[in-house]
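Backbone-to-sequence.
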C-alpha cells in the first residue's frame, strides 16, 4: 500500500483536495468558526501521512502542483474590487492610510517580539511576511534569508487565526464600517481572512482583496528596511 501511494505522481493533489472538501463539509455541519476548512485539511493531511508512514517529500512531489494556482487565484480577487471601484475611488485616501497602518503595525509587532524573545536575524526575517499571501511571502522570506517552510506555516496560521477571530475583534472594537472591516481583515490575514470578509459582505470582500495586493507590495519594500533593524 505504501509503495502504491508514494509512487503515485498525484498523491499530494488528491489528498489535499479530498481533505479540504472534508473540511468544507465539516465546517457546514458544525458551523463554528474555529473549524476552518484549511485548518481541518492541514490536520487531516498530517494524520494521513503519519498513519500511512509517507514522507513529506513524497507528498510534496504531487502537492506542489496546487501551489502553481496560488498566484492566479490571488489575481482573481481583483474581480470583487472592480465591482466596487467607485466606492474605492471615493474613499481612496482612507483606504491607503488603513493598509499602510496595517502593514507597519504588523512588522513593528514582529520587531518588538523578536527583541523580547531574542530571535536571531534569520528567525526574525522568517516572520516578517506573516500577514501577506503565501505567493508573495515565500519570495520575501527567501530573499531575506529566512526559513521559507516556516514562513509558509506562519502565514497559514496567521490567516486561519484571522478568520477565526475576525468577528470577535470587530465587535470588541465596535468596527461597523464595511470598508474598515475589509481593510482590517485583508491587511492582517491575507487570502484566508478575505474568505471571512466575503462572508460579511461584498464591500468587505472587495476592500480585503485590495488589501492583499497592496499589503504584499508594501511588505516587499518595508521588509527590506525592517530586516536591517535586527
Amino acid at each position: 500500500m505504501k509503495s502504491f501511494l508514494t509512487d503515485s505522481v498525484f498523491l499530494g493533489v488528491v489528498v489535499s483536495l479530498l481533505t479540504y472538501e472534508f473540511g468544507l463539509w465539516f465546517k457546514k455541519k458544525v458551523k463554528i468558526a474555529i473549524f476552518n476548512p484549511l485548518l481541518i485539511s492541514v490536520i487531516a493531511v498530517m494524520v494521513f501521512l503519519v498513519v500511512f508512514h509517507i514522507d513529506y517529500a513524497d507528498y510534496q512531489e504531487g502537492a506542489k502542483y496546487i501551489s502553481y494556482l496560488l498566484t492566479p487565484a490571488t489575481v482573481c480577487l481583483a474581480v470583487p474590487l472592480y465591482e466596487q471601484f467607485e466606492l474605492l475611488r471615493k474613499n481612496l485616501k482612507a483606504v491607503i492610510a488603513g493598509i499602510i497602518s496595517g502593514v507597519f503595525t504588523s512588522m513593528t509587532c514582529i520587531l518588538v517580539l523578536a527583541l523580547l524573545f531574542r530571535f536571531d536575524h534569520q528567525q526574525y526575517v522568517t516572520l516578517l511576511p506573516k500577514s501577506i499571501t503565501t505567493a508573495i511571502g515565500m519570495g520575501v522570506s527567501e530573499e531575506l534569508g529566512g526559513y521559507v517552510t516556516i514562513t509558509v506555516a506562519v502565514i497559514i496560521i496567521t490567516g486561519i487565526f484571522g478568520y477565526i477571530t475576525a468577528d470577535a475583534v470587530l465587535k470588541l472594537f465596535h468596527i461597523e464600517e464595511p470598508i474598515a472591516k475589509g481593510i482590517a481583515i485583508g491587511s492582517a490575514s491575507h487570502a484566508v481572512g478575505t474568505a471571512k470578509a466575503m462572508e460579511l459582505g461584498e464591500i468587505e470582500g472587495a476592500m480585503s482583496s485590495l488589501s492583499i495586493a497592496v499589503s504584499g507590495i508594501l511588505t516587499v519594500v518595508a521588509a527590506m528596511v525592517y530586516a536591517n533593524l535586527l
